[in-house]
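Appendix B, record 7
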Amino acid sequence: MQFDDFECFSADSPASGTELTPSATPLIRLQYLIDNTPAIIYCTVPSGDFKMTFVSNNAFNLLGYRPEQMVADPNFWFDHIHPDDAPHIFASLAQIFTGGQRAYEYRFRVSDGSYLWMHDSLRLVRDAHGVPLEVIGSLTDITGRKRMEETLKAHGIEQRHLIDQLRNAHEQLLQSEKMASIGQLAAGIAHEINNPVGFVNSNMGALKGYVATLLGVIDQYEAAGSGHPAVATRMAAVREQADMAFLKEDMTDLVRESLEGLKRVKDIVQALKDFSHTGATNWDVADLHHGLDSTLNIVSNEIKYKARVERQYGQLPPVTCLASQLNQVFMNLLVNAAHAVSTQGIITVRTGTGKGIGPEAGADWVWIEVGDNGSGIAPEHMKRIFEPFFTTKPVGSGTGLGLSLSYGIVNRHGGRIEVASVIGEGTRFTVHLPVRPLNAATSPSA
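Structure tokens (predicted):
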């Protein structure tokens, strides 16, 4: 049968219950097949309103509507498409007159008010002269398939989330292992440096005494020779030739500067030892100001050419914590502040005490603030700065793990990190910590 000479059956065609007998006419046989196919067959006028002219009787079994009810309402098809799906269909429906066919997936409202997902395949039928006769449609229920797709999609999202969590945990483990290795290396280096620095410092102390003694002897020689003109003249010549006045002043300064340099080396070595404290897995009572100062010594080379550090310390009580892990937090915040400022910037480190919120509202808390007058953080990045692997730095300049690890460490201490930033004015990170975390497995020394 050619589409050119096909006519859709009207709504009063033989019902699907018609008994099919061997003597049935081709028309009855065709009606029986149409009414018992899984898909709803329908026809519409080939015009903009797409009024239905025929609907197969199986529509009642699937949709709960009588075919004559659907045909009688000129807007039935349009009015029963889900409002969220209708705009897409209406915007492209006219293309059937150029392409000859279209297919859609949309939600269709059934008689009980619920929606079923339908696959609708539309085809334009023309006469022998190419004039549109009607549009034939085939509606198939795909609700089960859509639910399966949604389930698979949800499982896929859940799997991706689990994969991200595993990757984050893996990267944090690697970072922790790396920091532990660096800590062991730093502790070993500090120990090795301590030995030569110790005896050099001792020698410099003795040398300072020897220099003072020698200068005193020279002064006494000069005083003793002042009563002998020949000796005094000779000593004056030697004194002038050696530029004794300069030597006395410069020698004293050199010894003093050398001792100051050795003290600086000792401070750096001590900072390395403090930063890489071997009891990193043990909760203990610590002086956070001491940890801040040690960390500032470690990162001084990162900061000193770009910014001036202003310390505004309040009175802090000893805090039960994992000191080396908090030092990592301080280091990350200080390095980020240094990267945010240009030359002649200011990094402010402030501390103080305050009360907690939530479950620990009655407990004593402390806070540590690291602020800068740098470029600030864009508003669209504020919600993502603690995400693993998120970074605004150029490729190769950052892993995006620093703030994520810091967030995890502070959270492990029962605390929180707050951030405030204004573009072009700077950023402030404030770490709030309970003095005695509820989950702290305090060591005996604590």
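Remarks on this record: The first helix runs from residue 26 to 36. The chain has a mean pLDDT of 80.
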